[in-house]
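@here heads up, posting the sequence + SMILES for the pyridoxal-5'-phosphate run so it's all in one place. Ping me if the SMILES looks off, I pulled it from an old spreadsheet.
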Amino acid sequence: MAALRYHMRAMTTLTHLQCSACGKTYEAGRALNVCACGGPLLARYDLEKARRGWNRAWIPNGPSTMWRYQPILPVRKPESIVTLGEGYTPLIRARRLGERIGSANLWIKDEGLNPTGSFKARGLSCAVSMAVELGVRKLVIPSAGNAASAMAAYAAAAGLEAHIFMPRDVPQANYIECRAFGARVTLVDGLISDCARMIGERAGEGWFDVSTLKEPYRIEGKKTMGYEVAEQFHWELPDAIFYPTGGGVGLIGMWKAFEEMERMGWISARRPKMIAVQASGCQPIVRAFEEGEPRSRFWDNASTVASGLRVPKPLGDFLILEAVRASGGAAIAVEDAELLEAGGDLANDEGIFAAPEGAACVVALRRLLESGFLNRDERVVIYNTGAGLKYLEAYSTRFPRLDGGEHDKLGGLITPR
Ligand SMILES: *Cc1c(COP(=O)(O)O)cnc(C)c1O
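bot reply: prediction finished. Complex structure tokens:
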């Protein structure tokens, strides 16, 4: 009976799209990018209907993926869904790391366990499902790395054409994955912002651009990180959330999820402090936060091993800054050497080999504990947005092979005689 109930209710309550900048509304059910004013479009739902017809107690009867939240996801026909098992990732108590840095209630949401090893799978499962539903056949994406891998995987699973523009120096794992999934990969001698511009110049190709926030549904997949953390903590949000912020869409998405859940009566008005973590070599949001500006400025010569954070000017910067400020949160920048070091600590203490982006959050947390911004008893969640295995070039500087002659011993290299 419970399973049946889930099925009866597992229909979207999507009503329309709305511009996040000017408020103009658009009918759902068409392949759209941004508003006429250039603002990102956000999906809106009939949350009153969802409140009446859906019960959070039924969610465990749904699939063990992010599609357990289907009523607040945009897909209308269940057969459009392209899934590889994304979402519903573990929330792991980090006792030993917490003890090391003075946080007694520390948790890691391990997004590295998603298909293609990053949380980008959530957004692209949703975007590619909508492409299938709306009859789009050819997709294009500018990516710093992991979004490309995820797009390539879901496009392969759906039988769609995938075109990818990514920086020449993306991690090797991302390049090889995209090729393996059969995508057409163009390497660009530049950053994600250059990739986006090159796609813009090829408008005649008939490709549908699934750039984050230029496509309205990736954020809907990403917002499920917010639903999950609420469900996993029995509908009580943590005190602080640390999110490694590149385009910031995960953070904006979670903020949207919290509002939706409150309107459905699932959670109270209390919100976590949202902490946007960036790399020192690319910190447009931190700079704007500190200067009290509503928007960021382009960060020149962006450079960091945390490739997902190498976004010099996020399209949704105003939404990130609004959420961070409204939550009483903060924006923190971390050096590459520090975040690689912290990645080692996290792996060594918890058995979780995090992406450098996730590891950056450990450094930021340590800093906010030291400054007294957070105290040791507050419940803190770090989003580890990807798997460390995707960053072998970066981590090989932190963990070089001990195979020189002087290491001819245990813990180094032994040559059998
Ligand atoms: C893309 C990416 C980020 C940044 O995500 P946004 O939501 O766009 O800020 C962080 N970490 C990893 C591993 C990523 O791939």
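MO: The pocket of pyridoxal-5'-phosphate is lined by residues 118, 120, 146-147, 212, 244-250, 308, 355, 357, 385-386 (CB under 6 Å).
MO: One more: DSSP finds 14 helices and 13 strands in the chain.
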